[in-house]
Design a protein that fits this description.
With 659 residues, the protein is α+β, with helices and mostly antiparallel strands. The protein contains 20 helices and 21 strands. It folds into 3 domains: 113 residues, Lipocalin (Beta Barrel), CATH 2.40.128; 378 residues, DD-peptidase/beta-lactamase superfamily (Beta-lactamase, 3-Layer(aba) Sandwich); 133 residues. A hairpin with a 4-residue loop joins strand 17 and strand 18. It is globular. The two termini are 25 Å apart. InterPro entries: AmpC-like (IPR050491), ATPase_P-typ_TM_dom_sf (IPR023298), Beta-lactam-related (IPR001466), Beta-lactam/transpept-like (IPR012338), Beta-lactam_class-A_AS (IPR023650). It comes from Pontibacter populi. It holds the Pfam family Beta-lactamase. One of its GO terms (molecular function) is hydrolase activity.
């Protein structure tokens, strides 16, 4: 699960609900061998080009060089437009819209072109809560159940570990991300309360609140409803009066306003214009803003809450936004991860505070360095993930090239308190983000081993990539790749000793040990399953030909070849319908439909035919079938049953995508 994103932060597409090929959740198990071979091939090829790329790479030294580099990224990625904002403590350094805001109408982007900033909107929820806390009207430590008992959620640990306001903002409630019915909801007239009442089933804690972090868009939405109830205003009105207006962000809005209709950039998905999406959890990602407005937002943070001599929020409140506090790792001293509507992002030893976002086909990256008083914003009107990542990297290269190199942290950290060493072996993630009722674990877990006090971590997604961590305190380890202490050993109330690692896209990942027998048993099961399926289908044409020629007798000799193929047909039907439903905007998966019901029935049929194939294969053992035919058939039938039981355990069998 932990791949190169740990060290090369990507923009968080947190509220995007992109058209994920949900069928891959099952199909990725089939592609395991292919993935490993392709990864190895890419690594071998990379040795031949990496030196050349390094020689050609040039860090932009001027705004004009940066501008040309960004235009080149837009061209290479097919991204129509980008809004770019660079700011320091004195004000804007560069604000410009690049490219075409609307290709069909040939409208160029400018500094007043409005883009959708997606989950970057969450920062305003945190600002509102903190402002109300400063006024003594609520506290981050307040119980959500006491403040808004009318909002439905389920927390099995509520009596001992209630969900607090800060858990909503740090995504430590243990809730799923919003489910498909919420994701496809698109009614502009839905109130915040109606949106929260629409499908509360996603708000069920899967672990003890305040221990692990997993992104959940309904958390900030519930916090925004608390703002409504405490302030007596709609959330959007509260933000407009207390932040947008004082900041001077005249056109910032949560709605499809007249300004947006006139100045909004067309959003392009796969090169085609995309319709406007009205979010059911509006506070979590609906803000529309121009590069000019984003400059005001950056100034609010780098000037530590002060706007034109008016202190909108205190500096201590901003520091709390920048400080993860509620995971087990944060409580034990881990300072990196997701705070309140912001998260830490490493770049070459510099720690940016940021939030990224995606809604529809609009993407954003809002980042700043408070100690240096600089920040930037990037907004694009395309679903191309690489574009905004590359532009963000270019800007960070430009900004940090003019800064003094940060002092290595490891030498300045005390090693007091002794050394807590993790258990060596294999680990897998126990805080997955879920939007569907199931989440299959990765076939390739993390591998951790020790040499003296040094931890070595091998990342499965990149064969051969090994990262070293050295101890800097009790349970805390310094990452020699990111040059910061972002790895800690903690105790989880459900899993026992776990590892928490910061820097994974928008937050932290929690890893629990898994026995090697399970790891290699799972891998062996799927590899053998795929191989035996391939063998069966490879020989099928020859069997059919021989049967046609009368060389294979009928009855058991034919049926023993046919029964093991039925489960394969069933699971492929389920995967195809899942993929089709995802490509069609997930509307057919978010409600009972021919597509979603077919998925449910096909997964059930897979389980039933897997059992039936074993029963029939066993019953044919004395029918005089050749061993070369019978043994592969019984092996494949047993493997079907094992995989079916595995899928049943993880919720794939009888999958109701609309639940």
């Amino acid at each position: 699960m932990i791949c190169k994103h740990v060290y090369n932060d990507m923009v968080t597409f947190s509220l995007s609900y992109p058209l994920i090929n949900i069928g891959n959740a099952i199909m990725k198990q089939f592609n395991f061998i292919k993935t490993c071979l392709l990864t190895l091939l890419l690594i071998l090829l990379s040795y031949g080009v990496s030196g050349q790329e390094a020689a050609e790479k040039q860090v932009p030294r001027t705004i004009e060089e940066l501008r040309e580099a960004i235009l080149q990224v837009l061209k290479e990625t097919g991204t129509p437009a980008a809004g770019v904002t660079l700011v320091d403590r004195n004000g804007p350094v560069w604000i410009e819209g690049l490219g075409m805001a609307n290709r069909e109408k040939e409208i160029p982007a400018d500094e007043e072109t409005m883009f959708r900033i997606g989950s970057t909107s969450k920062a305003f929820v945190a600002l509102a809560i903190l402002k109300l806390q400063e006024q003594g009207k609520l506290s981050l430590k307040d119980k959500v159940k006491d403040l808004v008992p009318e909002i439905e959620f389920t927390n099995p640990w509520e009596a001992t570990n209630p969900i607090l306001v800060e858990h909503l903002l740090e995504h430590t409630t243990g809730w799923d991300d919003i489910h498909l019915p919420e994701a496809i909801h698109n009614d502009p007239n839905t109130t915040l309360k109606e949106g929260l009442d629409f499908h509360p089933h996603s708000r069920t804690s899967k672990w003890v609140p305040g221990t692990r972090m997993a992104y959940a868009n309904s958390g900030p939405a519930v916090a925004a409803y608390i703002v409504e109830k405490v302030s007596g205003q709609t959330y959007e009105d509260y933000i407009r009066k207390n932040f947008f207006a004082p900041m001077g962000a005249e056109t910032m809005t949560y709605f499809l306003s007249d300004e947006y209709k006139q100045k909004g950039a067309a959003l392009y998905k796969e090169g085609r214009p995309n319709d406007y999406w009205h979010l059911i959890t509006r506070p979590s990602g609906a803000v529309n803003a121009s590069p000019k407005d984003m400059a005001k937002m950056i100034q609010l943070f780098i000037n530590r809450g002060n706007v034109n001599g008016n202190q909108l929020v205190s500096e201590s409140s901003l520091e709390r936004m920048e400080s993860p506090s509620t995971t087990s790792g944060a409580k034990a001293g881990l300072k990196y991860g997701y705070g309140l509507g912001l998260y830490t992002s490493d770049y070459d030893g510099y720690t940016y505070y940021k939030h990224g976002g995606s809604v529809g086909a609009g993407k954003s990256d809002f980042s700043y360095l408070p100690e240096y008083g600089i920040g930037y914003s990037v907004q694009t009107n395309s679903d191309n993930t690489a574009a905004i990542r590359k532009i963000g990297t270019l800007i960070r290269e430009y900004q940090t090239s003019q800064l003094p190199k940060p002092v290595a942290v490891v030498s300045a950290i005390s090693k007091s308190g002794g050394i807590t060493k993790p258990v060596t072996g294999y680990y897998e993630q126990v805080n997955p983000v879920k939007q569907l009722p199931f989440k299959l674990p990765s076939l390739m877990p993390e591998r951790i081993w020790l040499e003296g006090d040094t931890i070595y971590n091998q990342f499965p997604a990149h064969v051969g990539q090994i990262v070293k961590f050295v101890p800097v305190g009790k349970g805390l380890y310094h990452n020699l790749e990111t040059d910061r202490p972002d790895f800690i050993v903690v105790n989880d109330p459900l899993e026992g000793e776990v590892l928490e690692l910061a820097g994974v896209e928008s937050g932290t990942v929690t890893l629990a040990p898994v026995h090697g027998t399970i790891v290699f048993g799972r891998i062996a099961m799927f590899i053998l399953w795929v191989l035996f399926i391939l063998q069966a289908f490879l020989f099928l044409p020859f069997w059919l030909y021989r049967y046609w020629k009368g060389k294979i007798p009928g009855g058991a000799n034919v049926l023993v070849r046919i029964w093991p193929l039925l489960p394969v047909v069933c699971i492929m039907i389920a995967a195809v319908f899942l993929a089709f439903g995802a490509m069609e905007g997930k509307i057919y998966l978010a409600k009972p439909s021919f597509i979603s019901i077919s998925v449910m029935l096909a997964t059930i049929a897979f389980f039933v035919t897997a059992i039936f194939a074993v029963v029939m294969a066993v019953s044919y053992r004395s029918k005089g079938i050749k061993k070369a035919v019978y043994i592969p058939a019984i092996f494949l039938s047993v493997l079907h049953l094992l995989v079916a039981l595995y899928f049943l355990w993880y919720g794939v069998i009888g999958l109701r995508t609309w639940a």
